[in-house]
Amino acid sequence: MSKLSKQEENILLAVWKLGSEAYAIPIRTYLKKITGNSISIGGIYVPLDRLVRKGYLDCYQSESKPERGGMSRRYFNLTKKGYHALQASRHVYEQLWNALPEISFKGSD
Predict the structure, then answer these.
(1) Residue 18: partners with Cβ closer than 8 Å, 6 or more residues away
(2) Considering the domain boundaries, does residue 105 fall inside one?
């Protein structure tokens, strides 16, 4: 299992959270809301495609939408492999955070 980049991890978490509404625009909107960072549409599609190739996401096309000029949407689902990759990443972060000593700051902030 390959390591996830922070961007990949965030996208997988967003797909998981959004469930049946996980397509590029809501993923991008959700990540902007949570992180405060604006992401280009290419910054969403490129990692989504990579995560599909790695087997961490499945994707499927919706029916054609008249309001979209007959175009369909590409929806994404978290796979079991993607879930396990997220769990492994979480485990690493928990180990790192749990190993930190207490810290005290002198003076004012």
Answers:
(1) 26, 27, 30
(2) no
65 has which bridge partners?
A: 71
pLDDT in tens, 17-50: 999 999 999 999 999 999 999 999 889 999 999 9
On whether residue 104 sits in a domain, the answer given is no
Burial of 16 (0-12, 13-18, 19+ CB in 10 A): middle
Domain with residue 90: its CATH number is 1.10.10.10
Over 60: is that where the pLDDT of 88 sits?
Answer: yes
Q: Using one digit for the tens of pLDDT, what is the confidence trace for 51-75?
A: 999 999 999 987 766 665 667 789 9
pTM, two decimal places: 0.85
